[in-house]
């Protein structure tokens, strides 16, 4: 996975409009030393000043027993950045669902034969 991330374009341009108006500015991002990680578990908590997002890898996500999962990464964001992240994730997921269909969060529905048939019919 980390090798795949290194194949991604090394620089990306982001255009932002400064607060209070004015001309747009271009921000160039350098991700040559980025540390990519995979997560299938996250926990979101917060304080009055910031949002804390913990990421982890749960090797047994369907286990029905108590588990101890090690947090791999922790992101601490202010609420302004959190809201921008929320909007960006929401737009990304909406575009994905428009192209590939609704993302079903209920595992039982994803695994049922009727759900598989519905997915197949949606692709036709």
What report would you give on this structure?
- Strands 3-4-5 form a three-stranded antiparallel beta sheet. Strands 1-2 form a two-stranded antiparallel sheet.
- The chain has two domains: 34 residues, no CATH class; 87 residues, no CATH class.
- It has four helices and five strands, in the order αβββββααα.
- It is α+β, with helices and mostly antiparallel strands and 124 residues long.
- A hairpin with a 3-residue loop joins strand 3 and strand 4.
- The chain is extended and about 55 Å long.
Key features of this structure:
2 domains; 4 helices; alpha+beta; disordered N terminus; extended; 124 residues; 35% helix
In short:
With 124 residues, the chain is α+β, with helices and mostly antiparallel strands. It has helices at 2-6, 79-100, 107-111, 113-123, and strands at 11-16, 25-30, 41-46, 50-56, 71-78.
Radius of gyration: 19 Å
Q: List the domain count as a whole number.
A: 2
The count of β-strands is 5
Largest sheet report: 3 strands, antiparallel
Mean pLDDT: 83
Tally of separate helices: 4
Helical/strand content category: alpha+beta
Which strands sit side by side, in order, in the main sheet? 3-4-5
Calculate the terminal CA-CA distance, rounded to whole Å.
Answer: 31 Å
User: Could you say which overall geometry the principal axes of the C-alpha atoms support?
Assistant: extended
Helix content: 25-40%
Strand content: 25-35%
- What is the H/E string? HEEEEEHHH
Query: Low-confidence spans: pLDDT under 50, at least 5 residues?
Result: 1-11
């Amino acid at each position: 996975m980390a090798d795949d991330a290194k194949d991604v374009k090394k620089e990306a341009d982001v255009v932002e409009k400064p607060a209070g108006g004015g001309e747009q500015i271009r921000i160039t991002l350098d991700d040559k030393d980025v540390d990519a990680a995979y997560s299938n578990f996250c926990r979101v908590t917060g304080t009055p000043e910031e949002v804390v997002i913990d990421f982890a890898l749960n090797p047994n996500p369907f286990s029905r027993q108590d588990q101890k999962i090690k947090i791999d990464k922790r992101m601490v964001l202010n609420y302004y950045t959190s809201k921008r992240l929320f909007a960006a994730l929401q737009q990304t997921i909406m575009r994905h669902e428009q192209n590939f269909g609704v993302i079903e969060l209920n595992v039982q529905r994803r695994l049922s034969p009727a759900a598989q048939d519905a997915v197949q019919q949606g692709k036709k």
